[in-house]
């Protein structure tokens, strides 16, 4: 097993950014041997700002080596690997927070990890250099708070539709256990219009988003190891245990048992950070 001596600095965003930002995680790791992690789909997006380091990634988008990047919503696993030092700051955003930050559709980011300097946004492209130059995690996180609040709370910011916010909130509250027809009825939109607007602002269709949120709940229970797979399947609304196993294979690329085994053998970041 690789020998990793980690330094982590988790932090919560201020209340004014609730609904946009989930958390921050400053990190510095070192390993002489490769550290590989399986990143299964979750109901959030991420800005990952590296301080001069890079990582290898492999997923539906192919294989690449990248520095600082943004990860949109997705419905398949990504395998990451690094050797040596890895340091930077991860910003976990809700998909609607990412939409507000960028000010345009995030559907083109679905299942992709474009570099920050590919987004056409000077403030985001300059983040690696600016944050690396600041003296410690509190100063870096304070800088990010100011940047995000200045963008997301500005009267000129492009905010998600209230109907999309409602649909997203309902899906999160039920871990995906709400029908798209019911969401459409609650918003007063047609199913087709809801699908179009939701996908534009969240990145995935409502049904696929629900699938990811249900899987996220199930994967947490699998990792906890306190319930049988049959009980987890019933709790999360799968038809039976084989259905649960099929979903793990489809979304994580492995069975629930293998997923939990990998989790126990791999050096993890606090609160399952997506790195």
TrEMBL record:
Signal peptide location: none
Keyword Cell membrane: no
Keywords annotated in UniProt: DNA-binding, Transcription, Transcription regulation
Matching SUPFAM superfamilies: Homeodomain-like
Superkingdom as given in the UniProt entry: Bacteria
Matching InterPro entries: AraC_XylS_family_regulators (IPR050204), DUF6597 (IPR046532), Homeodomain-like_sf (IPR009057), HTH_AraC (IPR018060)
Presence of keyword Transcription: yes
Gene3D superfamilies according to UniProt: Homeodomain-like (1.10.10.60)
Ranges where the HTH araC/xylS-type domain occurs: 178-262
GO molecular function: DNA-binding transcription factor activity; sequence-specific DNA binding
Protein name as annotated: AraC family transcriptional regulator
């Amino acid at each position: 097993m690789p020998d990793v001596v980690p330094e982590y600095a988790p932090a919560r965003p201020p209340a004014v950014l609730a609904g946009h930002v989930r958390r921050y995680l400053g990190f510095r790791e070192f390993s002489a041997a490769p550290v590989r992690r399986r990143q299964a789909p979750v109901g959030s997006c991420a800005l990952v700002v590296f301080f001069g380091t890079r990582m290898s990634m492999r997923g539906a988008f192919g294989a690449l080596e990248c520095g600082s990047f943004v990860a949109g919503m997705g419905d398949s696993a990504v395998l990451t690997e690094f050797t040596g030092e890895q340091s930077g700051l991860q910003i976990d955003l809700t998909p609607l927070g990412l939409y507000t930050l960028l000010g345009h559709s995030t559907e083109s980011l679905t299942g992709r990890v474009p570099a920050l300097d590919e987004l056409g946004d000077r403030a985001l492209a300059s983040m690696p250099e600016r944050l690396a130059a600041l003296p410690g995690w509190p100063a870096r996180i304070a800088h990010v708070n100011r940047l995000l609040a200045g963008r997301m709370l500005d009267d000129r910011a492009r905010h998600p539709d209230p109907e999309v916010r409602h649909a997203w909130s309902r899906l999160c509250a039920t871990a995906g256990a709400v029908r798209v027809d019911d969401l459409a009825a609650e918003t007063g939109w047609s199913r087709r219009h809801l699908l179009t607007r939701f996908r534009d602002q969240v990145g995935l269709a409502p049904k696929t988003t629900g699938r990811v949120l249900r899987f996220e709940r199930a994967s947490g229970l699998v990792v906890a190891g306190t319930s049988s797979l049959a009980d987890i399947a019933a709790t999360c609304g799968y038809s039976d245990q084989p259905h649960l196993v099929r979903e793990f294979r489809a979304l994580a690329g492995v069975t629930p048992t293998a997923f939990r085994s990998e989790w126990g053998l791999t050096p993890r970041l606090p609160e399952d950070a997506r790195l």
